[in-house]
Amino acid sequence: MKKFSNALSCAIFLIIFLSVLIACVPSRSQYIVTPPEQEQPETPIIESTSTGRPVYTPGTLVDYTVQSGDNLAYLAWRFGCAKHEILFHNPEIPKDITTLPQGYAMKMPIYYKPFWGSSYQILPDALFVNGPASIGFGVETFLSSTPGWFKNYSAKLDGQTKTAPQIINYFAQRFSISPRVLLVLIEFQTGALSQPEKPLNVEAGLLGFRHVQSNFMAQLSHAANALNAAFYDYSNMKLEQFVGRDGLVENIDPWQNAATVAFHVYFSKLLEGDAYQKAIGPDGLARTYMGMFGNPWQNEEGQIPGSLRQPEMILPFMEPGVWSFAGVEESIWASGKTWSSILFTPTGDSQICSRTNSATIAVADGIVARSEFGTVVLDLDGDGDERTGWVVVYTALANDGRATQDEVLLQGNQLGRANCVADKISNLGLQVARKYNGQWMPATLDALPFTLSGWTPLDGELLPNNQP
């Protein structure tokens, strides 16, 4: 335990030191790379090691440095070993630890798989999600500094005409994906931020998804959905290999991070061969990101801290009252395999979508960071910004009686009423999901389950903590 505590103390000291150092560095000007005329930044990028992993003897110990969001079950799944093996070779790690501290050096027993993909990492997880790293970044200000046609683009979205900055902010908030990621993706695939000339038919499958509606809004929505699906399927142990457009199977390198895996899967559906390898390598998306926003690995900050705990939360409905646990639903942010939101349905009321008196309540103290059609976002750290700390997202709420933005609620205060559940038109219900620092946290996460009033969901079941 002493070694572990010292590591944490050193990590805290380094974070404080880097924060002071960064504050003294003048901000860099923003610019867009327009190859081949413009020189690339001199900041070095780590060279890709591609698939150069050796064929390990089963159980070989390898060096590993903890990445954001790692926990024992996650590492065991990626390296093909068991949790007790990890603890045996790293005895200083507490058996009941939730998340591991980023940067912690440990030994991992590894079991080899063939056809591992690239080990080159494109982007840290903290810069993939719409979290603390996005605070202070002004999409409108950035776009206005670019020479491309996209800054003057507008389109219909939710029945209203929105400008390019409004479009980016809309998708960033809806999917909780970084606005920088969306901008870099658009630039890399279309050159829309650096090329002044607008294509004759800008809506013709601009991002390359021919099976999706040709309009740009549908394309961008599909892209954000695909990125999130891969990010969370991997980070929650649902995705260990994928098949590319060329039919080749790729097993994900155990050292990879979720953000990089998301781009691998994304580009594997659009590109193949050398084009795919370039997109995921140092001369692809990574170089475009560097040209627009600098080296993403410089001054990297952790996304999920070590030993993270969920605050105490209660069930989201009033007593007395009878509600049914309807299951753990697929994600509300992407069509992936991750079980994320918990679905409850009130009993005793009509099951047809109509007015109901079934009240929903705040699971913990907080402030309403956002209140819009059918949705309330309850921010538990009290700063009113859903990109920081713990946040609980309520969906399928009736519009009348819904808590308003900036309203302060105590645990148990009424927040709204149940309403129609999306895609279940005949049923009333309530869906609740949670985020930490902008990153969606699945309900059945092994290290941090979505526990409410002592009940814990397990892949479609809700069991008290004292049951097996």
Q: Portion of residues in helices?
A: 10-25%
Radius of gyration: 23 Å
Instruction: Let me know the largest β-sheet.
Output: 9 strands, antiparallel
Helix tally?
10
**Secondary structural class:** alpha+beta
Q: What is the total domain count?
A: 3
Describe the structure.
By secondary structure, the chain is α+β, with helices and mostly antiparallel strands. It has three domains: 2-10 and 56-110, Membrane-bound Lytic Murein Transglycosylase D, Chain A; 125-293, no CATH class; 323-464, Glucose Permease (Domain IIA) (Distorted Sandwich). It is built from ten helices and 19 strands. Strands 7, 8, 10, 11, 12, 13, 15, 16 and 17 form a nine-stranded antiparallel sheet that branches. A two-stranded antiparallel sheet has the order 1-2. The radius of gyration is 23 Å and the shape is globular. The two termini are 28 Å apart. Residues 1-50 and 422-426 have low confidence and may be disordered.
Keywords:
Glucose Permease (Domain IIA); 3 domains; two-stranded antiparallel ribbon; 10 helices; globular
